[in-house]
Amino acid sequence: MEKILNRSNILTEKINPKSARIDTMSTEEIIRLINAEDGTVHKAVAKAIPDIVRATDIVVGAFKNGGRLRYIGAGTSGRLGVLDASEIPPTFSVSTDLVQGMIAGGWRALREAIEGAEDFEESGAADCKAIGLTSKDVLMGIATGGTTPYVHGGLKYAKSIGCKTIFFTCTPHEELGIDEVVDVFIDVLVGPELITGSTRMKAGTATKMVLNMITTSAMIKMGKVYGNYMIDHQAINSKLVDRGTRIIATLTGLSYEDAYQALLAADKHVKEAVVMVKLNVPLEKARQLIAEHDGFVRFAFEESDQ
After folding, report:
1. Where on the phi/psi map is residue 68: left (φ > 0), alpha (ψ -120 to 50), or beta?
2. How many Å from the N-terminal Cα to the C-terminal Cα in the chain?
3. Overall pTM surpassing 0.70 (yes/no)
4. Treating both helix axes as pointing N-terminal to C-terminal, what angle do 256-265 and 270-279 enclose, rounded to 10 degrees?
5. 87 is catalytic
6. Annotation says 115 is catalytic
7. Which residues have C-beta within 8 Å of that of residue 294, sequence separation ≥ 6?
8. What are the tens digits of pLDDT across the range 246-260?
9. What DSSP state is assigned to residue 22?
């Protein structure tokens, strides 16, 4: 018999009594039960907010010092890390290198299950080495069941080179025995799944919520929004050109057509266009002012009013 880990004590592997007869329910009963269980996720996330704040501040500190955020996970956890990372560049006009995700089994694992890819710590360490992880970076492990060897291996390697580490899990981390390699644990205890062990459900939802919180908050702290406007997005398609044009019009008082022309004059960079119009400066000066204020256009506007 191959060596296996008995995971019966893991919270995400336990049985949910609410769904003991789910195979006898009507379609509507199943849907309502899933919806009710999903409604408990935000409360579990709320309990972890202090740790989410600590994790976010670590990420912001890394960004300000030339570091990057790297996610590492397997299966659903890995896919959600890659998904979140892929959304950051177009939303906030940052390099594709700033936030990236690693998944056990590589890119093929995004489309299909790669059996056994997560079972080796050395694979996680090797992937971290391959992407050039440094002590300036942050590695966030994602493993809702908490035991994934691939993720543990990555965290151990990261800690060995002085990299800050975060670990997201849906089981109490005290049971995992990896305290020495993790700086911040984020335990979101959503409880047993309706389909036993199917962590693509509540645990996956919780994962997406927390990743959204961390990267969105970090981008806000890096000056990537003005008020609640996505002022630093890349206008790379028709929808985003329209959104950028409307943001410029709203913030400057220009007509839609004039705002569109301002966007074109700024090479389709919304932030630069707003600064150009509000401060009546050319593109290069707008870029200079944005850089001088670390990306925070609010501070540039406030200084000009003094």
Report:
1. beta
2. 75
3. yes
4. 110
5. yes
6. no
7. 222, 223
8. 999 999 999 999 999
9. G
CATH number among 3.40.50.10490, 3.40.50.300, 3.40.50.1110, 3.30.450.20, domain 11-221: 3.40.50.10490
Instruction: Name the residue ranges covered by the structural domains of the chain.
Output: 11-221, 238-305
- Per-residue pLDDT tens digits for 198-237: 999 999 999 999 999 999 999 999 999 999 999 998 788 9
The size of the chain, in residues, is 306
**Secondary structure of residue 45 in the 3-state scheme:** helix
User: What tokens does 7 get?
Assistant: 């995971």
- The two tokens of residue 198 are 């199917």
**Amino acid symbol at 209:** M
Report the distance separating Cα 84 and Cα 201, nearest Å: 17
| Whole-number Cα distances in Å, 99 to 81, 132, 160, 185 | 9, 13, 21, 19
Can you tell me whether residue 184 is helix, strand or coil? strand
Distance between CA 227 and CA 233 in Å, rounded? 14
Q: Choosing from 2, 29, 37, 87, which is the catalytic residue?
A: 87
**Do 11-221 and 238-305 fold alike per CATH?**
no
For 238-305, give the CATH class.
mainly alpha
Q: Which amino acid is at 289?
A: L
Pick the catalytic residue from 118, 121, 193, 272.
118
